[in-house]
Structures
1.
Amino acid sequence: MKELIAAWKRVDRNKLAAALSLIPGLGHLYKHHYLAGFGILTIGNVLIGFVSALMVFGTLGLSMILVPAAWIAGIAYSAYMASDEHGHHPWLHVWNYHWSGFFHRTGNT
């Protein structure tokens, strides 16, 4: 188990975010960009599907391949280049709190 934890700490988070972006939005969520991630997952993907479907007859079906491929590549690049906000949200990492300091300051025991 220790080897698995040690290997996980050496993972390049940028490459993993780009790989997770095969489902556009997951890479942004992985890097803790929640608004962008949920926006891409919901509105962005639906909009790209709609645009691809509208263009299908004019492009002889190529839009169903090329437009989503370009969308996924762009989102993967965006997730790769996004700043990593991991650890910047203390409310998501409650196991790191030192509750003894909280109780000591408030006088509760």
2.
Amino acid sequence: MIRMVTRAAAVALMAMPLLGAAAHADDALGTPVGHVTIKVQSADIGIGRTWGSGRLTFQHHTYRFRIDGGSIAAVGYSKVTGSGDVYNLHAVKDFEGSYAAVNGEATAGTGVGGVVLSNPNGVKIKLVTQSKGGRLAAAAQGMKITLVK
């Protein structure tokens, strides 16, 4: 168990430059067309689960959505809130789908992070997150966003 946590910590530290790149990705992503807020929880013992909800503001409308996902190479539990901008969204139906990210998280008490998520429709979400709990993650992460009708 200690060996797995040590490896995860090393990978998380190597992933931290990616988080810095996400914070400076405005030029590469273009002009934001929407805004999101999220609240998720993650529980992990090697392979983990993430679940939560959020709101998308797009073209003067607000849409609620559910988040379900998972991660690998993570240990612990955290509650995460975040907000960010949405790019390359042309129709609200394109917001739904599976999103992928490679990131690292090291939360002991509270933490701050950032990530850029993308789906097969070309939609990108740049999030700034705040987490509470005790969690160490260093892996690919995926989540499915489903609009609440």
3.
Amino acid sequence: MVHSLTVKRAQKIHAVLAHRQQGIVVLEDVHDPHNAAAVLRSVDAFGFQTAYFIFEHQKAYNPKRIGKQSSASANKWLTIEKFASTKACYDKLKSEGFTIYATTLKSEKPLNLYTPMPTLGPKIALVFGNEHAGISEYGQMHADYHLYIPMQGFVQSFNISVSVALVLAEITRKRREQGIEKYVLDDQQKKELQDKWMPEV
């Protein structure tokens, strides 16, 4: 029984790795750990691997230890990094060649999520702001593009976990149209994750 369960888990790991996408979800000063946990669930569900957390004005928490129920233990499988400022996070992203999309309603010239985007990556970073204040001024000013989700109702914002799910779903749809194989993790990245995950089997 133990052997069959181990084989089944190994098969699942290989299947997940085959579809893991490149790209980073960035959460800037998200103060509610339950919201963050729900976001991580979407990150994993849509096949993204990496999430960055910025704690500049909000009290930091450990993303690896938040809400098992709301995250469905997704944080266990994700690559997570924390930053003490938006500048530090952006500096790293830009030094590694990432294009930064900040989701915001404050921009004068935002891009509609459902229209063609200048680039889908593979090196894209999708930034989501604080639940109440949204993206910081620095986060908006230093992003490459501003992105918004069009809404037709009286309410002009979604819960952050819903916003992340909608954006990742649309990015994935666009990538599939162009050929998702261009956006999956490379062989070295897959090997590193396989080595990390197999001890969990």
4.
Amino acid sequence: MASTDFIRQLDGYGLTTATILYGIPDHPAVLQSFVWQQYDLAPKFPVLRKFLHFWHRELDGPLHSVRVAHSRLIKPAEFRAVDGIMTLH
């Protein structure tokens, strides 16, 4: 049985990494970073948007900036049809 992460990759999901800079509530002039990583769909990033909405709604640290990197780990060119099998002695 295939893992759910592998099935997601076949459905077009890729590994998304977001570096989030946010202000510390007690010291607004100080920024801290948080790295978030999850499988998501580019270019709309619904999983990341859901997480950022949660952050804005539930956490006190105001968001300063978000830098996103995305890579599809399984690409269509990596799969090739095999027409036959050759046996060498």
